[in-house]
Design a protein that fits this description.
- With about 220 residues, the chain is α/β, with parallel strands linked by helices.
- It has a single domain, classed as Aldolase class I (TIM Barrel).
- It is about 25% helix and about 25% strand.
- The chain has a nine-stranded mixed β-sheet with strand order 3-1-2-4-5-6-7-8-9.
- Helix 1 runs parallel beside helix 2.
- The protein binds S-adenosylmethionine, the ligand Nc1nc2[nH]cc(C(=O)O)c2c(=O)[nH]1, iron/sulfur cluster and magnesium ion.
- The site of the ligand Nc1nc2[nH]cc(C(=O)O)c2c(=O)[nH]1 has 10 residues, from strand 1.
- Its EC number is 4.3.99.3.
- Its cofactor is [4Fe-4S] cluster; S-adenosyl-L-methionine; Mg(2+).
- Keywords: 4Fe-4S, Iron, Iron-sulfur, Lyase, Magnesium, Metal-binding, Queuosine biosynthesis, S-adenosyl-L-methionine.
């Protein structure tokens, strides 16, 4: 088992349920969803010309499309090594659910870590059952993929990106018939837009939903 890795870095989880928790981020390369406002467009393509040696993706990149193939055993050894103090792994991307995350999450949970994935919901979620799954549903994006009902059902947290009322309406349609007991629903303003912030605050209060702010962007950290 190998994973295409764009970057591995330690920071504070900036969004969602675990906001404020020190975490190691594993960003996988590759995403076919095509969100117009994606803040990690450099992770979309997995091109041979961008492949580098594994050591070169340790540390936060500068938005480069570089990636390295990391074998499972090497990845677990690195993540559980002396370099990191955090015990919370966030697997993001790109779209991490293009890959089978069971071997990695099983090994990390066995090593005493908590695992979280950030996913669009457009692929089946393959993780250890203890992994916290954050689904950020993507509706009507360029790639033509659809949110999988199984991903919504697996979600611990549904964190919906919102810039306008249409996005709230899309979430309502998506959640119709999904049992929400035990799940958190949050709205996340797109790209710190003032109008998106205001809309999310208003709807969160009306619906008793959570607000997820990308705090790392206000803090200017990775
Ligand atoms: C970059 S994505 C990677 C993981 C996965 N592909 C997904 O979309 O969930 C990580 C998170 O950032 C959110 N995101 C991406 N671009 C954003 C933007 N411009 N403003 C707000 N949230 C954004 C996504 O919705 C998702 O919750
Ligand atoms: N600090 C920080 N928190 C994050 N939460 C989700 C992120 C992501 O890109 O998936 C992210 C990120 O890139 N940085
Ligand atoms: S699904 Fe995630 S990584 Fe892919 S384009 Fe959308 S926000 Fe970006
Ligand atoms: Mg990010």
């Amino acid at each position: 088992m190998q994973y295409p890795v764009n970057e591995i870095f330690e920071t504070i989880q900036g969004e969602g349920h675990f906001t404020g928790v020190p975490a190691v981020f594993l960003r996988l390369q590759g995403c076919p969803v095509g969100c117009a406002w994606c803040d990690t467009r450099h992770t979309w393509e997995v091109l041979a010309e961008d492949q580098v040696e594994p050591g070169l993706v340790i540390g936060a990149g500068d938005g480069e499309p570089r990636w390295a193939q990391w074998p499972l055993e090497q990845l677990v050894a690195h993540l559980t090594g002396p370099q990191y103090r955090a015990r919370h792994l966030v697997i993001t991307g790109g779209e991490p659910c293009m890959y089978d995350l069971r071997p990695l999450t099983e090994r990390m949970i066995a090593a005493g870590w908590r695992c979280q994935i950030e996913t669009s919901g457009c692929f089946e979620v393959k993780t250890d059952p203890q992994t916290w799954v954050t689904v950020s549903p993507k509706v009507g994006m360029k790639g033509g993929l659809e949110v999988q009902r199984s991903a919504l059902e697996r979600a611990n947290e549904i964190k919906h990106p919102v810039a306008m009322q249409k996005h709230v309406d899309e979430l309502d349609a998506l959640l119709a018939g999904v049992a929400l007991e035990g799940k958190e629903v949050a709205l996340q303003p797109i790209s710190q837009q003032h109008r998106a912030n205001e809309l999310c605050v208003r709807v969160c209060i009306e619906r008793n939903w959570r607000l997820s702010v990308q705090t790392h962007k206000y803090l200017n950290i990775d």
